[in-house]
Specification:
The protein is an alpha+beta fold. About 30% of the residues lie in helices and about 25% in strands. The strands form four sheets. It has a seven-stranded mixed sheet with strand order 2-10-4-5-7-8-3.
C-alpha cells in the first residue's frame, strides 16, 4: 500500500471500483462512515482466518509469584494486542529459556492439582475471551520471571477516516477489492465476474505471502523421541 494513505483514500477507491460513485466524485460523510464500519468488519473477519494474519510477533511480559491466571490485551495484566491464539511460549529462569507447551481446555481439565506451584511453569492454557483474553500457567509459578509469547499479528482496526494506514505488501489491493464487494452488495450493485475473480486472486496472493512452513512432529512412542523431523532425511 502506498505510504502513507488514509482510510478515506481506500474507501473512495473501493466505491469507484464498485461503481457506487463515479470518476471525480467523492463519498458523502455518511457514506464514508458507513464504509469505514464495513471496512473494520472485514478486518475483524480476516482476524479469524489464520492465513490472513501477517507474520508473527513475540511479546515479553512477566509472571507474578503465586498467580496462575493473567488477562492479556490492552490494559490487561499482559498489556499488548489481544491475540486470537498463542502459538508458542517460553519462560526465562536464571538466564535459561524453558519452553512452555500451549495446551487446550480438555488437556488442562485433566490436571489433578491445578494449584500446584513450582519455579518454572511448563504448560499454558489460553482462552480467547473478549475484550481481554485469559492465560493460565501450570504449575503456578512461585516467582517473577519473564514470559515470552508468540502469536500472529492482526491487521488493526481503523478508528477514523483520516487514520494513516500502512499494511504489509498485498493487503492494499486485497482490502480494496474486498471492500468493493461488500459495498456493491450494500448498494445493490454487485461486481461483475471478472472483478470478483480479481478480488479472489488479490486475497489469495496476500494469504499466500503469509504462509508459514509446517514441521511434522511424531509421537515419541513411534520414534523413541519427540520432536520435529525432516521428511527428506527422516
Amino acid at each position: 500500500m502506498p505510504s502513507p494513505t488514509t482510510a478515506l483514500d481506500l474507501i473512495t477507491r473501493s466505491m469507484k471500483l464498485a461503481k457506487v460513485i463515479g470518476t471525480g466524485e467523492t463519498p458523502t460523510p455518511e457514506e464514508s462512515m458507513d464504509a469505514l464500519a464495513t471496512l473494520n468488519d472485514i478486518l475483524e473477519n480476516w482476524g479469524t482466518e489464520p492465513m490472513s494474519l501477517w507474520s508473527a510477533t513475540n511479546f515479553t511480559g512477566a509472571t507474578v509469584g503465586g498467580q496462575a491466571t493473567y488477562t492479556i490485551g490492552p490494559g490487561g495484566n499482559l498489556n499488548t494486542t489481544r491475540p486470537t491464539q498463542i502459538n508458542g511460549a517460553y519462560v526465562n529462569f536464571n538466564g535459561v529459556d524453558f519452553p512452555v507447551d500451549v495446551v487446550g481446555q480438555l488437556e488442562y481439565n485433566d490436571i489433578s492439582l491445578k494449584t500446584y506451584q513450582q519455579p518454572i511453569p511448563n504448560q499454558l492454557l489460553y482462552v480467547n475471551e473478549f475484550p481481554l483474553g485469559f492465560l493460565t500457567l501450570w504449575p503456578v509459578p512461585t516467582g517473577v520471571m519473564p514470559i515470552t509469547l508468540t502469536f500472529d499479528r492482526l491487521l488493526t482496526q481503523i478508528p477514523t477516516l483520516a487514520t494513516a494506514i500502512n499494511y504489509p505488501p498485498g493487503a492494499a489491493k486485497a482490502l480494496r477489492y474486498a471492500l468493493a464487494i461488500e459495498l456493491g452488495a450494500e448498494y445493490g450493485m454487485p461486481l461483475d465476474a471478472a472483478t470478483m475473480a480479481m478480488a479472489a486472486d488479490a486475497k489469495a496472493d496476500f494469504k499466500r505471502s503469509n504462509k508459514q512452513p509446517v514441521k511434522a512432529s511424531y509421537d515419541a512412542a513411534l520414534t523413541g523421541k519427540f520432536g520435529t523431523g525432516n521428511w527428506r532425511t527422516g
